[in-house]
Amino acid sequence: MRQEKLLIPTLREAPSEAEAISHQLLLRAGFIRQVAAGIYTYLPLGLRVLRKVSAIVREEMELAGVQEILMPAMQPAELWHESGRYEVYGQELIRFQDRHQREFVLGPTHEEVITALVRNEVNSYRKLPLTLYQIQTKFRDERRPRFGLLRGREFLMKDAYSFDSSWEGLDSSYRSMYDAYCRIFARCGLNYRPVEADAGAIGGEGGTHEFMALADIGEDTVVSCMSCDYAANLEKAEGHSGEADPSLLLQVEGNAEAGSAVNKQGQAAAGAGHYDRLHTPDTRTIQELAQSTGMAASSFVKTLIYLCDENYIAVLVRGDHEVNEIKVKHALDAENLVLADAAAIEAITGAPTGFAGPIGLSIPILVDRSVAAMKTVIVGANEQDYHLRNVQPGRDFSLRIMGDYRNATEGDCCPRCGGGLVFHRGIEVGQVFKLGTKYSEKLDAKFLDSTGREQLMIMGCYGIGISRILSAVVEQHHDSGGILWPNAIAPFYVHLIMVSVKDTEQVRLAEELYRQLKVAGVEVLLDDRDERPGVKFKDSDLIGIPIRITVGRQAAEGLVEYRERRTAEQIVISADTVVAKVTG
After folding, report:
1. C-beta separation of 78 from 499 below 8 A
2. What are the Aminoacyl-transfer RNA synthetases class-II family profile domain coordinates in residue numbering (predicted)?
3. What is the pTM of this model?
4. Angstrom distance (rounded) from CA 39 to CA 66
């Protein structure tokens, strides 16, 4: 490819709105241009990288025996009503009507469409297992698009869906896709980590893993153990402080009972009268309490009041911990969980926000196990300007509904081996789910087994953010000069630069090398622009092609400069050896 006519509009400075380094460099290097917030055009270089990533995905899907199809982005809303996700998916689902007032959505994912397809086309166990995938544009109306390709409203995604006749078959399909994803991300040059995760809006009855590219800009927190291979995202991660009494933890009655407890009226305190009132005027937050009393935040217990679907509940966590609302929702099998407003809090506790406590509450109380392990605590008194000191969990309030309801913290003990937990930031580039019968049951996707009986198909789904990989790779592979593309997904492998297009010897040698490299099957970009050498070299570093061959003043002697972008080492070699060195 000749650079003179190629659309590569490089920029000396990044637009002010570009916060992430990947966003800045992809704009500056002429890979993408913004059309609207969260919506981008991929210019020639960006599209070449997208195609390289897509090719790797297709090769690995072929190796795993997965078949490629292409489904429509425009989906009839009745399928989403049938699955029950039309109302619960949220405002990210782009809804619209056609000229006949029929409702449609722009697909953020394709569970409904693929389940309906297989339901209509596959009816026998003999045709299972079956896994289908596509690479297609997805649409999500992000409330706050940011970081360029990392959080957009329109993006390229690979999504696959497996259909099995048994849970054992799903386990096999899941493992096959998990392994394929590991190969894909490794081939793309990513430093990544598979982590246990929450299924979110996709849902399902089995496990799920996210694949996180480690990067400081990442919006997700990766929690991992320093002593074993345990890793999870913050929504899923478990941790304990190491002080819990094992006999105390045996009192947990289980999350299933917690769900039914929401419907019961009232919860009596286990005891009363053994604590002291503490005057805390205008002291509402843990930080203010710690400052006014001189005690550590871990000495206090926060009582947070939530509206859980249609019922109010209280969640107790230690003062230095944060409630994990995902865990609470799962414990109660709830769809919606929001903090109660000030009026509701006062109606329930008899006090304004900031003074809620567990003693005497007539709503179910979920107690985090780290609270249950404390000997005495300070809690809100359910009275304005007062807290209670020397409150004892299990004596002064019930521990009947106890579990893991908080975010893990750095330094917690690993739930598997007891080692220390550490935190990293990560970019989610892929996720695999065991869906089970979540969609096949609702959309009536069944097959006849070997005895002729109808059975529900057992499903899995598997997604990769193709366009997001571009940003994740750049976040991990760049320097002060620009991008450092891994060889496998670089837009070109060699950047061939002629220093002066007016020097006939340079032009002759550059053209000959360009021809030889192309014949050898090397992807080469020839910089044949009439520009100053400094401009060409800066653009070359910015674009980040792995190898740079410079044809300059020594062209008449048959010598060129060879430079690897990643190491910046530059040597002079004979032009006769260029092809062998590049392909060797």
Report:
1. no
2. 33-486
3. 0.86
4. 30
